Fold this protein.
Amino acid sequence: MVVVLAVVVYLLVIPTSQKNEDLLGRLVIGRSSAPGVPSKPSGSQAVPPSTSTFGPVKQAAKGHPGQTGIYEREWDVTASAPPEAGLILEYLPDDSSAAATEAVVRQKVLSKAPTSNGETSSAPKRFAIPGVAGATAVSYALTDAATKKPAGFSYATDFRSGRAVVDELMVTTSASRSTAAAIEDAQAEHALLLREAPGFSLSPTRYPTVASIVFVIIALLVVLAAYFGPELAVSARDRQRAHREAKHQEQIRSQYRARGRRAVARHRAPAWRQRQGARR
């Protein structure tokens, strides 16, 4: 009972929980397949969900701040020109919030052609992402607004996996349309979520080492006291009883000896008669 109580108290007192949005980086792929971009991301950061332009994300951040987060990762050669790729992950407190967010993303992002300085986009062309159920993906041909020459292609993908909604925009300078890189990124991200998302928490429970050691030592002392205490108490009580009994017996013997001395003294001859007998 003492051990069970100690475990319960430990779980109530020692563990701590604190939101850490940087943990979302574990749910985002570290390398993009976009042609021409470096393998190392040019930027990775957690974004406050309260700044999101999507209503469901802002509502989730108000109601469940410890379970809502946004994380983005980018790959580019320069900050102002393609090729580039950017992936954003929105992590919601439940599946329904994630579904609502995905619907808004498709309405606001995928339904509109991406715009950039000096370029125009063609009508979207859909393509499939094998192995990623419910994914939406479109590509756009880019044209230089001044020269009217082809400038490359952009690819936008979106899918939901449980509580996570993932969006990626990839811009290339390729002369021909190729969806392979966008498909590869989406598949890699989907596989990562299937592997890491179960059991993931933005506010993980931690067990401080020093506090845990101190608690274990105290709990061990309490357990030992509970286990050996009754036996030691009974042993101490028996020793006290034995000591009192021995003392009582000693008092009885002392009284007996005293009575014996008095009895002998009453029957002993006076000292002057003992001296007379000695002289004769």
Q: What stands out?
A: The longest strand covers residues 150-161. Residues 1-17+205-268 form one domain.
